[in-house]
Amino acid sequence: MHAILILHGPNLNLLGLREPEIYGSQTLDEINALLSDLAAELGVSVHPRQSNSEGQLIELIHEARGWAAGIVCNAAGYTHTSVALRDAITAVNLPTVEVHLSNIYKREEFRQRSLIAPVCIGTISGFGAQSYLLGLRALVAHFDQR
Ligand code: CA2
């Protein structure tokens, strides 16, 4: 069975508590529960982790090399700034799907550039919690293609 790291970046622990008009009303725990249900349906296992720290996110990516078949990653604010996170994804060479709750391409200009996108197999942005579920489906479809 494929094990998949679900990586949630900074501030996503606040989901459902603030800015529901942008990020939806579901909490991170609720999104993780939806992912777990879908994983059971798809025959994979998901392992959600959240951190507000860039270094911790990088450590989690490094560790994933030892146990995960792929990553679904919402790097949140680090999407637009972190060369180090991008380098970590490149270094572990695990297929990674970038996801965003909001459509980053219809927001502020600084959100419209992702440093992560070029090292991911693809990006899903703008579908709220569904972005994660679509991202998981896309990663599993990618495994099935290989
Ligand atoms: O749309 C997304 O998923 C983002 O990755 C979310 C990030 C943002 O910096 C990216 O540009 C797009 C922000 C996550 C912050 O989440 C909050 C949740 C509740 C209240 C405030 C922020």
Notes on the protein architecture:
The chain has 146 residues and is α/β, with parallel strands linked by helices. It has one domain: Rossmann fold (3-Layer(aba) Sandwich). It has helices spanning 20-23, 28-42, 54-64, 83-92, 129-145; strands at residues 3-8, 45-50, 70-74, 96-100, 122-125. The protein has a five-stranded parallel beta sheet, sandwiched between helices. The longest helix has 17 residues, at 129-145. The radius of gyration is 14 Å and the shape is globular. It starts with a strand and ends with a helix. The mean pLDDT is 97. The structure holds ligand CA2. Ligand CA2 binds at residues 11-12, 14-15, 18-19, 23, 74, 76-77, 79, 100-102, 104, 111.
Tally of helical segments: 5
How much β-strand is present in the residues?
15-25%
Level-1 CATH class name = Alpha Beta
Average pLDDT number? 97
| Tally of strands | 5
The H-level CATH homologous superfamily, spelled out, is Dehydroquinase, class II
Q: Which parts are unreliable, with pLDDT below 50 for 5 consecutive residues or more?
A: none
